[in-house]
Each structure stands twice: as C-alpha cells, then as structure tokens.
Amino acid sequence: MIRWFGAGQSALSDPAAAGAAAAEAAFAGREPVLALVFCSVGYHVPAMLDEVRSRVGPATVIVGCTTSGQMATGEAAGYGVAVVALGGEGFSARARVAREVTPRLRAAGAEIAGCLAGIDRPHRALLVICDGLTGNQHELVRGAFSVVGAAAPLVGGCAGDDLTYDRTYQFHGGRDGVEIMTDAGIGIALGSDAPLGIGIAHGWRKQGAAMVVTSSRDGRVFELDGEPALDVLLRRLGLDESVLDDEETFRERVFLHPLGMSRRTGEDIRVIHGGDRADRSLLCLADVPQGALTWLMETDHDALVDGARDSAAQALDGLGGQSAIGLLAFDCVGRRTVLGDDGLRQEMAAIGKELGGVPYGGFYTNGEIARVRGALGMHHFTLVTLALA
Amino acid sequence: MNHWSTHQLTEFFAAVGSSRDERSATMVAMERASEVLEAEVGAVLIDGRVEVAWGMPGDDLDAALSAAAEAATIDVAGLDELHVASARFGAEHRGDLLVARAGEPLSPEERQLLQAMAQTLGLALDNITLLSAERRLREEREREAAERLALLESLREARHDSLTGLPTRVLFLEKLEEKVRLGTPTTVLFIDLDRFKAVNDSLGHRAGDELLAAVAGRIRHCLRPDDVGARLGGDEFAVLLDDTTTDDAVPIAERLIDAVRRPFPIFGRDVFIGASIGVATHSAAAPADPGDLLGNADVAMYRAKKEGPGKVVVFAQQMHAEALTRLTLTSDLQHALKHGEFHLQYQPLVRLADGATAGVEALVRWRHPDGRYLAPADFVPMAEENGLIMEIGRWVLRSAGAQLARWRRSRPGLRVNLNVAARQLTDPSFAGDVRRMLAEFRLPPTALTLELTESVLMSDPAAAIARLTDLKALGVGLAVDDFGTGYSSLSYLQRLPVDELKIDRAFIAHGYLTAGDLAVLRAMVDLARALRLRTVIEGIETEAQLVAMRRLGCDLGQGFHLGRPADPEVLTPVAA
Predict the structure, then answer these.
(1) Which of A363, B10, B384, B405 could pair covalently with A38 via S-S, beta carbons 3.0-4.6 A apart?
(2) What values do phi and psi take at B169, rounded to 5?
(3) Cβ distance B169 to B298 under 8 Å?
C-alpha cells in the first residue's frame, strides 16, 4: 500500500463524536501504522479514544497526550481533538513507556529509547512524548540520547494542560485498549524507507542587557546579577508587585519575555511561568544553570511567523530532495499565546505555503524536543517539525 | 565579551565543579562539552583509550579513532564524517576530553573553549581526588580512633574498678612492676577502712558504694601525678608512691588517714570512718617482687589494724612470723570449737552495800592442746576477724545459760553477764539466739545481762541503738562495758537502752585513789544515777578501793578482792 500521512481535527464537544471525526479525517479509511492523538484536557478521554481505536488495525500503535492546543492541516485550535496518522509501505513504529518518571528522568529517557533498537529501516527517529510538568525534562532527553546516540535524531514534545500547569496525561496502546497515564514518558521508534527531515526555529531575539544567573537550582532561578531574580524581572519589565496577586495575570505579562541563554547557534529559551513571593525566585519549566549568561527575550508576530516558515523549510530540506508526504509539528504553546488568533492564522498560512498542500498536524507543547546536530535536544518557545518523505 | 563560548564555560565549570565523584565529573564534562560545542559525539579518553563515550558506543569510537590514526576526521556508520578535537586534562596528563562534530570542524575559538573545559575537568578531578583522599584518610582515622577507643574501653573495664574509677589489682601490680624494674625507691601503702562494714550493714550497699567512691576521691586527692591509687576489692585500697622512701611515705599515709577521717556526707548524713595503713618499701637495697611488696604492706596493715584504728605501721620482716601465727591460730580455733577446748570461768559481781553476790560475769577461756590457757584478749580479736566469734558466741551463750539454770535452782535471783562482740551485735540472728537460749533453759530475761564495750557501741551508734532495741525488747539487761576508756558520746549514752555502766578498772588501778580519781569516779556514778543506770566498778583489788567505792554509792563491784574468775564448780560464794 502506498505510504500516506493524514491529519484531522474536531472541536466537537462530545468526546466520542470528536474522536470519531478527527480519526476519520486522518485515516480516511486507511489502516495506520502509527496514530497520534492530541486533545485538550477536560475531554472524557476514554470515550474519545474508544472511537479512535475502533478505526485502527491490530498492529497500529496509538500514542498521544493532552495539550495546550492542537493543529491539523490549515487550522489551529485551543480546544478539540487532533489525530495525525501515517501508514503504508516502508513505515514501522513501536513504542515503549516509562512510568513515574519525575524522580528518575535520565533513567526513564534511556528506558524509552530502547525501542529504537527493534527498528531496522534506513531512516529512523525516536519520537518522544512526555509529561510537561516533570521539572528538568532536559535530563529525560539526555537519557534518551545516551542510548540512541548521534546516529538517529530525537524529536517530540511535552504534554500540556491548556496552560493550567496542573496535570498532563499521556496515552499509549492499540486497538485493544489505550492506557491513560500521567508522569509518563513514551518513546516511539519510527522507521522509514524514505528520509525524515527535522526543522527547529523560534524567532526570538535578545532584549536589553545580559544578566548572570548567580544562583539557581534546577528550574528555579533565585538570583540574577546577585539580586533576587523576581525583583530584577519586575524592574526590567516595569511591572508592579501587584502583578503577582493573580498567577494568571503574572504569567500573561511575563510570557512574552522568556529568558534566553547564550548558545552556539543562538539562544536557548526558558519560559518563566511563575514568581515566588516568599523567596523572590522565578519558576521556569526547565533547567536554568547557575553561571549561565541570560537575556530577557522579545519577539513580534512577524518574527514568530518567520520562525514557523524557517522550521518547515528546514524539515523539507532534510528530505534530501524527495517530496514530503506530511509534516508533524511540535509548536510551543508560548508561541501560540503570543501570536493570538490572527497570528496563528498567519503561522498556518506560512507553513501551508511552505508545504504546498502537504498535510500536517501536531500540538502545542510545554517544551519541544529535537536533536539533529550536536548533543543538545531540549528546546523552548520553539517550533519543531518532522517532515516525512 | 558577549560570546556564547565564554558564557557556557561558566555553566560548564559550575556543573563539573559540583560533581561529587570522579565518575560523575567525567560524565558531566563529556556531556556538556558535546552539548556546548554542538558535537554529536563526546568522550573521555584515558591512556588513549575511550573510557566513556556519548553519542555513540565507546567501542565503535575506539575503533574509528584507531582507524583514523592522526587524521582530524573519523568515519562512523550512520553519521556524516565527524571532525575530531581533543584537549588534555590534568597536570600530569590524566586523559583527554574529546568531541567529534559533523559538518564543520571546531573553530580556533571552539578549540580554545574545549581546552578550557578540559582544564576545568582536570582541576575538578584533582580536587575530587584530593577531597576523596582526605575523606578516606579522615574515615580511616575515625575508624582507627573508634577501634582504639573500644579497645581502651574494654581494657579499662578489666583494669579499672567501675565503682571508683581507680585501677584494679591487676593494673596496680603492672604499674608496680614497672617501678620496681626501674629500681627507684617505691613505697606501697595498703589501706583498709575502719568501720566500713558497719556502714554497709546499717545504711545499705548503696550507701557503702557511695562511701567507697568518695573515699577513692579523697585518696586520689592526696596523691601526686606519678603516684597510683587502686582499689583492691571490698574496702581495701592500695597506693603506689613513686620515688618515695619509707620515711617520706609515713607522713603521706598519715595525711591519707586524716583525709578519710573527715566526715563523708552520704545520703544526707555524715558518716565517720577511719583507715589503717600498712607501709612497705622497695629499694635497690631491699628489692622485692611486686606481689610480695603488696603482701608485705598487707601484713603491716594487719598489724596497724590490730594496734587500733587509724594507725600507720611500717612493714618489718618479723611480721611475717606473726602472720603465720595468725594463720595457725585460725585453724587452731576451728579445732578448738570442734573438740570442746573452750570453757567458761565466772567472776562474781558483788553488791557493795551488803557484799552479797548479785551475779557473775562469764569469761571464756581456751585450754590449748599445748597446755597453755589463753585469755579472750589472745584469741577474740582473731576470732572477730575470721568470723569464728559467731560460733564461739553461740557456744558461750548456751553454756552460760545452762550453768545459770543449774545455779538458779539454789540461787533463784542469780544473774549472768555475757560479753558480746561487735560482730555478734550486728548479726541479725543474734537476738533470736538469745531468745531461744532463754526459752531452752527457762530463764527469765532479767537473769541475763549482755555487756557491750564502748567501742562496739560507738563505732556506729545509730545501728547499735537499732540492734539494742531488738535485744531490749526481749527483756534482757544491757551493760556498757569498760566505760570511760573510749569516747562515748553522752548524748548517745542517754539514748542507748542500757541498764548498767561498768566503769573500767583503769580508774582505780593506782591502788591508792587520789582526790582527782575520786572526783572522776563520783562524776561517773552521778551520771549513771541521773540516767537511772546501775553502776559496776571493775578491778577492785583492795579493801580500801572497796570502801571508797561503797562510799561513792556504786551499786556493784568486781575484782580479785571480791572474787577471781573461777571454774563454776569451785565458785564458792555462788555454790554456797
């Protein structure tokens, strides 16, 4: 059977109906090798998944997670279900799950990467989906890299919960049943006879003077330039202390100003998602190493849209001249928040234009994973894309 | 300044520097170096071989590196051509930090960064090596110290007395041996506490233990740093006086006795005891085995004890012979009890007013198999010491009881006085023995008067009062013997439940009584009368003494002039 890629989504409020609609749009009657299901939190997930798995084959691998929004061909939405699927000749997929990963991220990463060994195709990648609230996700990616090595790329994203930072869920199973988990990591070994291309871009730039992280532990920044980090942030952004009265307000105001850390190919970005009044620290979702030089970052619609175009173009470039059948996207929820509805439409248009009618789908993430070059695989405020030939 | 490489070096330094062991420092350095330089492969090489690798299996990297020899690139299956760069780390070339990157080779700036990272790793490893060596050393030291402490503790337990903290006999002899070997004059004091047993018996063992610990403290306080005090067991202590001759030792011994004589506050009351000390010296002129030296001091202590409480006696060779005699005496006494060599003589107690015999005092005699007659003074102290006094006392009690019962058939009012030793008084079964004797011979308790010496009563008056009250409850009479020779506390005398004072012969021993003698005697008789006590004057040997005492109003008299001690069958005034 000819190789195919499909994506569909539904914003129906009935979970079963939404699941059925998205799956039918993605599968179009075909039996997928891999079906990826992304949905908003709040759905009755089992009912939705029942509809998806009733439409797959006995060997289909079903994986997925809750999100902070999803997209499928030409459309992005905050609420709903998206199903992305691929199948046909020359694809193989197998998955491995690690549970209760938070206290053992490195080991969990190594564990889920083990599934790649069973895939014997000329082109391989390890897709990673993991809980977006585990703290230092970089360690999970390092664990995966320790097993996969430089021979295959890593690509994926971290599950979200509509920016509530409360609890995210991960799905894994097949036609006979899908397990719904939290605090889990899933490795999906993808093998293909045709090339895979990966794109990574963000569209952020430095704002103001650099600051040294003089005290931090894991994702918590205590001091910038020897001063309480929260005080520095409020001053630099011209915000009043009262902005901390409401978590939501604070998050919105600082969302547009993540921290960027100096790297060889640019900046590594960290979202600030909270401020602790008690110890005047900043909470980031990923590690901000002590000693790092960091900037507050800024962007604008055009730059972000350009980022999306760049990412898609890089992924297509990776196919070595072969034409794409589809594109899987892991787009940072921060980008979606900054872009707003109008911006999202521009982003979709830019990607669509780049792909020229090739289907695409994916979800808005709480952290993006991509390692193609070098050894670093964890990103933030970034759009990671995987193009399949 | 704002270059990513210097920025990341700081992060690298922080990450590697915080590693706790060599392995994690190596791993972190390798991972971070490849991440920072965006290299697909990172590795640490030791002696040119891959120790750990990142991004590809170590063996494959080893093979690729050997195949490449000195080339700057390696070929690895599944990857593009990789540009290799490495930097040495460690002052003495501990190893190499290596990265291999696809695409473009490391720029000079990146190579410099790699070099800096390698040096950081080297420093971190040196630090960790140093710290872990120090930690190992510290742990080793702590372990050794703990072992030594445990060993010392176990030795200490065997060689130190747990009650007083003083060395035991074992440790004392070791220290003594050391001194003796050096040949310097060394003196041993053998200390035995006086009246300790009375304290133990009356106040209990806990008080006894407290007292021993307090005594140890006083002894320790009297010593110089090089002297050694020890507890040999029971109430016996020893002291080793370093570099001290006999002449110098005696004043020290006397100071010790003074120290022990001061009251001890035990459980809220003042306890008075004393000590007797024997002294033995080792010198180059008179060398001695440590055990013998301690034995000599023991023998001298025995003599001191015999001479009275609170004495210091220096060992002399002939004391050994006496000690031997003592040993012989003990076995002879046992033999005497078994073979009926004791018998009783009786001396009349005469009513001075009318010359009638009111009673008799029973006096024990030992007819030794060698034909000698031994008076109580010759064997009672020994019997007190070895405990045979208890058996002798019981024999006396029953014999006298039987004799009195015989006499009272014809002389119903006759009474008998018996001497009670200190150990009998403190023996809880003594009152029972007395009661049984009276019952056995159907004697009224008033027919028996028990005589106790002042020293027996006053060594522990409180305990004495308790025992005497038991005896008094039986209805028997109690007398204070040899009154005036010790130092009775008048307040105690008033509280003692006694009926009779026997004024010691010493007060009339001059033959001719001076006005002073008479004044003293009068005072004693008046005192007795005031306390409603019967008076007995001992040692009347002349008519003049008899007349004088009668005039003073003394109730009873005793002495050769009135009647010598005699066997019961020949005691005429009574028999008559």
Answers:
(1) A363
(2) -60, -40
(3) no
**CB contact (8 A) between residue A264 and residue B13:** no
* Among A146, A218, A259, A262, the residue to mutate for chain B (most B Cβ within 10 A): A262
Three-state DSSP state, B346: strand
- Per-residue pLDDT reduced to its tens digit, B401-458: 999 999 999 888 999 999 998 888 888 889 999 999 999 999 999 999 999 887 777 7
Q: Which residues of B touch A261 (CB under 8 A)?
A: 7
Cβ distance of B38 and A375 shorter than 8 Å: yes
Residue B59 to residue B61: CA distance in whole angstroms: 5
Beta bridge partner(s), residue A259:
A270, A296
> For residues B183 and B177, what is the distance between their CA atoms, to the nearest angstrom?
10
Whether the Cβ atoms of residue B394 and residue B432 lie closer than 8 Å to each other: no
- CATH of range B4-133; options 3.30.1490.20, 3.40.50.150, 3.30.450.40, 3.40.50.2000: 3.30.450.40
Cβ partners under 8 Å of residue B565, min gap 6: B345, B346, B347, B363
Q: Do A373 and B103 touch (CB under 8 A)?
A: yes
Contact B99, B37 (CB under 8 A): yes
Q: Do A150 and B102 touch (CB under 8 A)?
A: yes
**How would you label A295-306 residue by residue, b for 16+ Cβ within 10 Å and e otherwise?**
bbbbbeeeebbb
Alpha-carbon gap, residue A143 to A201, rounded angstroms:
23
Cβ contact B38–A149 (<8 Å): no
CB contact set of A161 (below 8 Å; sequence gap of 6+): A41, A66, A68, A132, A133, A167, A168
Upper half-sphere CA count for residue A38 (Cβ side, 13 Å): 35
Q: How far is CA B387 from the centre of its chain?
A: 23
Q: Of the candidates A240, A264, A263, A266, which has an alpha carbon nearest to the alpha carbon of residue A253?
A: A240
Residue A47 near residue A41, CB atoms below 8 Å: no
What residue in A sits closest to B31 (Cα-Cα)? A375
At the fourth CATH level, the homologous superfamily of domain B169-317 is Reverse transcriptase/Diguanylate cyclase domain (3.30.70.270)
ipTM > 0.90, yes or no: no
Cβ distance B11 to A150 less than 8 Å, yes or no, reads no
CB A287 within 8 A of CB A219: yes
**Residues of chain B contacting residue A221, judged by C-beta atoms under 8 Å apart:** none
Residue ranges, CATH 3.30.450.40, chain B: 4-133
Place of tokens 């006496």: B322
CB contact under 8 A, A375 and B103: no
For B345, the token pair is 């003589």
Residue B383: both structure tokens together: 């019997």
Domain with CATH 3.30.70.270 in chain B: 169-317
**Cα separation values, B142 from B134, B145, B571, Å:** 12, 5, 85
Q: State pLDDT tens for residues B351-404.
A: 999 999 999 999 999 988 888 888 888 888 888 878 889 899 999 999 999 999
The architecture of the domain spanning B341-575 is: Alpha-Beta Barrel (3.20)
Could you say which of A146, A292, A373 has the minimum Cβ distance to residue B54?
A146
Distance of CA B292 to the CA centre of its chain: 22
Give per-residue pLDDT as tens, B78-101: 788 899 999 999 878 889 999 999
C-alpha span between A98 and A156 (Å, rounded) = 15
